[in-house]
Amino acid sequence: MITEVHHTDAWKYIAAMPDNSVSAIITDPMYKDTVNMPELLRVCSGNIVMFCDPRYRFFAPDEVALWMKPPSSKNTSRHLAHPWEEILILRRGADVYNADLESANYNGIYYDILQGKRDHPFEKPATLCERLVHIYTNPGDIVFDPFFGSGAILKAAAKLGRRALGCEMDAGHFSKFVEGMAG
């Protein structure tokens, strides 16, 4: 179940949130944007897991995992391709780390691919989102994705018995997600 989604600027929403109001933040912000880590740390009582381009780290993580993207001409420009994204992990609070999956899920290098057509230009595979939610949160936790885009993280959280909270500023992505949840 999706607990709550908001069509709003995430930073305005976060500014109004009480301290320690979410159990974990798992998100994929725009890579060249600025991330207000003090505000995320204020509202989150647990782990923060964030996708990022290796050239634009948002914070100094405790651990770094890698998502190895399938080869694609989309990943190239006039420079070499960037066939991976980093997943920054900041361990906080009770330091949730559920180790009850097959051991290969913990090697920190993931090769998941999208199944079917992409709903969002930067969508992450459902299997990868589910793995991160499972490892870094507990059932009943509130998982917050302040930049939910396709909603893959929110869907993973709901599927795994976590409460899902998200913000999306883009009206088209927000509407598509809400319509998909209703249908």
Overview of the structural elements:
By secondary structure, the chain is an alpha/beta fold. Helices cover 24% and strands 21% of the residues. The protein has five helices and eight strands. Strands 1-8-7-2-3-5-4-6 form an eight-stranded mixed β-sheet, with helices on one face. Helix 4 links the parallel strand 7 and strand 8. Helix 3 crosses helix 4. The longest helix is centred in the last third of the chain and has 12 residues.
Key attributes of the depicted protein:
eight-stranded mixed sheet, alpha/beta, 183 residues, 8 strands, single chain
Number of helices: 5
Instruction: Give the rounded overall mean pLDDT.
Output: 89
Structural class: alpha/beta
| Topology, number of strands | 8
Shape: globular
Read across the widest sheet, the strand sequence of neighbours is 1-8-7-2-3-5-4-6
Quick structural gist:
With 183 residues, the protein is an alpha/beta fold.
How do the strands and helices of this protein lay out in sequence?
Layout: E1 2-6, H1 10-15, E2 24-27, H2 37-43, E3 48-52, E4 63-68, E5 84-90, E6 109-110, H3 126-136, E7 142-145, H4 152-159, E8 163-167, H5 171-182
Parallel strand pairs: 1-8, 2-3, 2-7, 4-6, 7-8
Antiparallel strand pairs: 3-5, 4-5
Helix pairs in contact: 3-4
